[in-house]
Write a structure and sequence with these properties.
Layout (H helix, E strand, L loop, with lengths): L7 E5 L2 H14 L2 E4 L10 E2 L4 H9 L4 E5 L2 H8 L11 E5 L5 E6 L6 H12 L2 E3 L3 H4 L15 E5 L1 H9 L4 E5 L16 E3 L8 E5 L9 E5 L3 E7 L5 H14 L7 E7 L6 H7 L5 E4 L1 H5 L8 H7 L5 H9 L4 E9 L9 E8 L10 E6 L10 H9 L2 E5 H6 L9 E5 L4 H14 L2 E6 L8 H11 L8 E5 L4 H9 E2 L5 E5 L7 H13 L3 E5 L9 H10 L7 E6 L7 E6 L12 E5 L5 E3 L2 E3 L8
Parallel strand pairs: 1-2, 1-4, 2-3, 4-5, 6-7, 9-10, 9-11, 11-12, 13-14, 14-15, 18-21, 18-22, 19-20, 19-21, 23-30, 24-25
Antiparallel strand pairs: 5-6, 8-12, 13-17, 16-17, 25-28, 26-27, 26-28, 29-30
Helix pairs in contact: 4-12, 7-8, 14-15, 17-18
Bound molecules: S-adenosyl-L-homocysteine.
S-adenosyl-L-homocysteine (SAH) binds next to helix 16, strand 26 and strand 28.
C-alpha cells in the first residue's frame, strides 16, 4: 500500500511519538529515526547530532517523510530544504496524541494528501488536508492525469489551480487520451469541456501540442509511438537528435511519446537501448509482422536487407495499432550533427489509447457486512488508494466516505458480476489500480473468485496485473455476533442459490451438513424467483435435528435496517426471509439462553 511513497522516513523525538510511529513503520517499511536519548526503542535508527543536519542528508534520498513533531517545528526544519512542488518530497505530520495526520507539504505532486489519508487510516486518526481542490471535491489540476500515465508539460500550474480554487470558469480542451476522468468529477466544478467560445480565465490543454497561452497548462497523454530504423552502431546522440527533431518539426511535445518501436533485429541496438533508458518502452516486431503492414514509403533496398519493405513506418503503425501515420518517415544522418557515420529513420503514429507505463493492480476487497467500523483498516486503505472502484451500487454507497475526488467509481447492477470482473481486469491491464468490492468477504460467494477465474482464462502470468486480496467479515460471522456464539463448534456455509450451482449439488450438501451435525449458515436463502429452497432445506434438517433446534435469522446485519429473529427449526418458515438475510441453524447441542444462541465450545458429558 505504501509502494508509491518509498523510500519513506519516519522521525520522532519523544518516546510517545516513537511508539506512535512504530507500528506504522512496521506496516509501511519506513525507517524510524530517533535521537540518541531514544536508542532503546526497538527497530529504530539513531541519528547522531542535530535533527536539522540529519534531515538535510535524508531529504534528497527520500520520497516521503512522516514526522511526529509539532507542525511548527517541522515547518522550520524543512523550510531551508524546500525547492519546488514538482520535486519536494511529501511531508506528513502526526500529533503526539495520534489524532491527526496533517498533509503539510507537497500534497498533490508529492502525494502527501494520499499519504496523510493512509497514515490516518493506520492510526485511526483524521487526515487534515488543506488544499483547495480537495475542499471542492476535485482532484488537483496538477495530478488528475497521473493514473493514466499522462505527463505534465509546460504551463502556469499555480495560476490555473488558483482559478479553479476561486471557482472561475476553466476551459478543458482534450484532444487525446481517455476522457473517463471527465465522467467522474463531483457536481460542483467549473470546468467546461470542448466549448472554445465560452469566456474562460484559464485553460487546461490535453493533447500532443504545447499550448503556450498565458493562463494555460498542458497535460500530455502518452499516445505517440515512434517507429525507428537505424544502421548498426548508430550513436545515441544521433538517435536522440532524430527523435527530438521529428517531434519539434511536427509540433509534438516529447512528453506525449509512449514508446519506441522497431524490428526485432534491433532489440540489442546499443544506441536505441540507451535512448529508451527507463523512460520509454522498446517494442520490437519480426520482419514477418512488419511486412504485411501497408505504409506510404516502402523501400526495396530495406526489404532486401531485413525482409520487410518498412521498419520505421510499419513499426510505428503496428505499435500504435493505427492505420495512418502522423508523421511519415524522415532520415537523419550523422553528418548533420558531427562527422561520424550512421543514419536513423523516424516515423510517428498515434494510438487511440494512451500508454500508462504502469503495471496495474487488482485489489479484491471485502467491505464487511455494512458499517464502515466493521471493515478492516487495510481494506479501507485499499479503497482510498485505488484509481478505480468497481462494485454493486448498494455497497458503493456504504463506502462513500472513503472515496477521494477524482477516483473512477463504476456501479453495476446486482446481476452483472461477470461484467464487473471483466471491466476491472481491463482497467488493471491498462495500468490502473482497481478495487473490486464485495460485501462481507470477497472470497466467500464474492467477486474475488470470478476475477481470479477470469484472469486464469486470460492466461494471466500471476504477476501483471498484481492481485491482492483484502479479507472482510463475512455474513456468517456478522450474523453470529448479533445473536451469540452459534458457530462456536464445527460449522459450514451453504448457499441456496442455484444460479451458479445445480440444485442437486446443493441438496446433497444440505443432507451431508445435517447428517454431520454441522451448525449451518445458509446464504442466499431466498430470492423473488426462488421461494421453495428454504422449505426443502428445513425438511432435510428436520430428518436429522429436533424441531426445537435453535435457528437465527439475521437480516442486514450492521446496517440501518438490521432485523434479528431467534426461532426454531420447526417454526423457521413462519418468519419472512429474503435475500438480505442469513439463516443460522444450530447443531444438536445449540441452545437458547434469554435472547442468546449458544453452541457449546466442547461436548461435555453431563
Ligand atoms: N461475500 C458475502 C456474501 C455474498 S452472497 C459475505 O462474505 O458475506 C449474499 C448473501 O450474503 C445474502 O443473500 C445474505 O445471505 C448474505 N449477507 C450479506 N450481507 C449480509 C448482512 N449484512 N446481513 C445478513 N446477511 C448478509
Amino acid at each position: 500500500m505504501f509502494q508509491d511513497f518509498q523510500p519513506l522516513a519516519a522521525i520522532a523525538t519523544t518516546p510517545n511519538g516513537a511508539r506512535k510511529l512504530q507500528p506504522l513503520c512496521q506496516s509501511s517499511g519506513a525507517t524510524l529515526w530517533v535521537p540518541p536519548s531514544l536508542s532503546h526503542i526497538s527497530g529504530a535508527e539513531v541519528y547522531p547530532g542535530s535533527l536539522k543536519d540529519h534531515l538535510a542528508g535524508l531529504w534528497q534520498r527520500h520520497h516521503s517523510f512522516v514526522f511526529c513533531l509539532a507542525a511548527g517545528a517541522v515547518t522550520r526544519l524543512i523550510a531551508p530544504l524546500l525547492a519546488n512542488k514538482a520535486s519536494d518530497p511529501a511531508v506528513v505530520v502526526v500529533d503526539e496524541g495520534g489524532r491527526f495526520a496533517i498533509s503539510l507539504c507537497s500534497g498533490h505532486q508529492g502525494g502527501a494528501d494520499r499519504l496523510a489519508k493512509l497514515v490516518a487510516l493506520q492510526l485511526g486518526a483524521t487526515a487534515v488536508l488543506t488544499g483547495a481542490a480537495d475542499g471542492l471535491g476535485l482532484p488537483g489540476i496538477d495530478i488528475f492525469g497521473l493514473p493514466f500515465g499522462w505527463q505534465r508539460g509546460a504551463g502556469n500550474w499555480t495560476a490555473v489551480s488558483a482559478a479553479v480554487a476561486r471557482g472561475e470558469t476553466v476551459q478543458v480542451i482534450q484532444q487525446t487520451g481517455s476522457k473517463l476522468w471527465q465522467q467522474h468529477l463531483s457536481g460542483g466544478h467549473n470546468l467546461v469541456f470542448e466549448n472554445p467560445n465560452l469566456p474562460a480565465t484559464a485553460q487546461i490543454f490535453i493533447g500532443n501540442e504545447t499550448n503556450l497561452g498565458e493562463n494555460c497548462v498542458n497535460w500530455h497523454p502518452r499516445v505517440l509511438w515512434l517507429g525507428i530504423g537505424c544502421e548498426r552502431g548508430t550513436s545515441t546522440e544521433l538517435i536522440a537528435y532524430a527523435i527530438q527533431q521529428s517531434c519539434q518539426s511536427a509540433n509534438l511535445a516529447m512528453e506525449a511519446i509512449a514508446g519506441i518501436a522497431t524490428i526485432d533485429l534491433k532489440a540489442d541496438e546499443v544506441g536505441l537501448l540507451a535512448v529508451c533508458g527507463n523512460k520509454w518502452p522498446l517494442k520490437t516486431f519480426s520482419a514477418e509482422e512488419l511486412q504485411s503492414i501497408v505504409v506510404p514509403n516502402p523501400s526495396q533496398v530495406v526489404a532486401a536487407e531485413v525482409g520487410t519493405p518498412s521498419v520505421a513506418e510499419a513499426a510505428a503503425l503496428k505499435a500504435a495499432n493505427s492505420q495512418q501515420l502522423l508523421v511519415e518517415k524522415q532520415i537523419f544522418r550523422a553528418e548533420q550533427i558531427d562527422n561520424s557515420s550512421g543514419a536513423v529513420t523516424v516515423a510517428i503514429a498515434q494510438s487511440e489509447v494512451e500508454y500508462t507505463g504502469r503495471k496495474g493492480q487488482l485489489f479484491l476487497v471485502g467491505t464487511g457486512p455494512g458499517k464502515l467500523a466493521q471493515m478492516t483498516p487495510a481494506a479501507q486503505s485499499a479503497i482510498s488508494q485505488a484509481d478505480a472502484i468497481i462494485g454493486y451500487a448498494l455497497y458503493l454507497d456504504l463506502i462513500a466516505p472513503l472515496l477521494r475526488p477524482g477516483q473512477i467509481v463504476e456501479a453495476f447492477p446486482i446481476t452483472q458480476e461477470r461484467q464487473r470482473s471483466q471491466r476491472a481486469i481491463a482497467l488493471a491491464k491498462w495500468g490502473l489500480t482497481v478495487a473490486v468490492v464485495s460485501s462481507g468477504d470477497a472470497g466467500i460467494y464474492g467477486m474475488a473468485g470470478l476475477v481470479l477465474e477470469d484472469l486464469q482464462a486470460q492466461n494471466w502470468d500471476a504477476k501483471t496485473p498484481a492481485v491482492e486480496i483484502f479479507p472482510g467479515i463475512s455474513a456468517l460471522q456478522a450474523a453470529a455476533s448479533r445473536v451469540g456464539t452459534p458457530l462456536m463448534h464445527d460449522f459450514c456455509a451453504i448457499s441456496l442459490s442455484d444460479l451458479l450451482t445445480p440444485w442437486e449439488v446443493i441438496e446433497k450438501r444440505l443432507i451431508a451438513a445435517a447428517q454431520a451435525d454441522f451448525t449451518t449458515a445458509l446464504y442466499n436463502p431466498r430470492s423473488q424467483t426462488r421461494v421453495q429452497q428454504l422449505a426443502i432445506a428445513q425438511s432435510i434438517f428436520l430428518q436429522y435435528r429436533q424441531p426445537h433446534t435453535p435457528v437465527a435469522i439475521v437480516r442486514s446485519a450492521y446496517r440501518e435496517d438490521e432485523q434479528i429473529t431467534l426461532t426454531s427449526l420447526g417454526e423457521l418458515l413462519e418468519t419472512p426471509v429474503d435475500m438480505l438475510a442469513t439463516v443460522l441453524i444450530g447443531n444438536n447441542s445449540t441452545r437458547i439462553h434469554a435472547d442468546w444462541m449458544i453452541t457449546p465450545r466442547g461436548y461435555r458429558k453431563s
